[in-house]
Amino acid sequence: MPDSIIGMLVEELRGRINAFPCKHRLLRDNKVWYRLVSALDALQDSDEAIEFVFAESGLPKGGNLGQFILTVHGLFQTLIIQQDAIGSLSLALSSGGVKLFNVHKNSLLREIRKFRNEISGHPSEQITDKKNPGKVNFYQLSFDDFSRWNIKYGGFEENQERVWKVFDFYSYCTNQREIIIEGLRTMVTELDKSEQEYKDKFNKEKLSDILKKDHYPWFDKLECDLDREVQDRNYQGKLVLESVQNKIELLGRKLEERNLPLDVFNQYKEKIQYASERILRIFSFKVLGKRTLELEIYRFYLVKKWEELVEWTKGIDDYYDS
Hints:
rod-shaped; 7% strand; 4 strands; four-stranded antiparallel β-sheet; 2 domains; alpha+beta
């Protein structure tokens, strides 16, 4: 349910993993990303199903045996789906430094899985020891004594007489829900902590500083060199454009260090490189003539894309300062 605690915590996690740049770091590994998406959906779906049973005040009672059986088996499977989902979520987020929530280390969750295996897993042939397949238990639901929340089932266990067990859905569902809520809250906290540590690691190094014009006699050099001889013009132009290329390459390496997406950066890189190549080609002509206008167009384009790239890096710097 949207207003349930589990549902709200799932939405909190969705908001965090979909935020820049966490999403892009996670998307670098498709397996991690799809595990996250699947686990969050499964958590919400299972929560909806369990909340529905609570809203209906428990198991159906009133003569429809088929509905009762489907609800019992469905609810057991839903509890396991929920356990598996938070386990998968923990596994996916552990790659980002979040502590792993181990479902199998929780005794109550293990007990629920045991009940599920006996009733809804393999009731007609429950192998208790994989190393000794001959040791088999058998279970069956009892329809003589059940209530809205309790089910009774009998079993023939190895070397024992017939045994009867009772499963209290209300108690186990409530306790599992509290465990899931605690686990999700821990993940939210750990994800926030991990993200802050990531920010702190890089917030003192400004990406926009790499592109500052005052680090080198920049693009104005491309104008004042027009009256020089071809050889000198080429030399001065190459110095400027090589510096442009060096700064672009350095910025790319810094983005990779932070596991940031490179798609936008690569678009700027490609456009700036294209303009640089055209400018160098124009410089190679002995007489510029009408190419002076062409040079100005490419120089203007180069400066414009450079300034856009500066603004883009400032936006990234602002994230690390937040």
